Amino acid sequence: MFDFFKTKKNYENISSSAFKAMISENPNAVIIDVRTALEFKQGSIPKAINIDLMDVNFSQKIAQLVKDKTYLVYCRSGNRSGSACKYMGDNGFEHVYNLSGGFMNY
Question: Rounded to two decimals, what is the model's pTM?
Fold first, then answer.
């Protein structure tokens, strides 16, 4: 009863060690850094692509991605990437993981 009040969580928050393990165990996983281009240039996880959550074209860029791949998403602290993961899950992405604590914990 009242299930409509529950929000379905369609992504998973994972620890830094689990995030690193997923990178090494899933060579086809896509690593997405949702920070600004300047933040990305200052340091990023190897092989990450930069899709800034605050960019006006964020939704269009995400829509171009294949929905059944594994996506490992991060930002500085985990807040923006959590929003990005929720957006991706709400739009049909099946395997989305957020780095808890963000790049600061990596």
Answer: 0.91
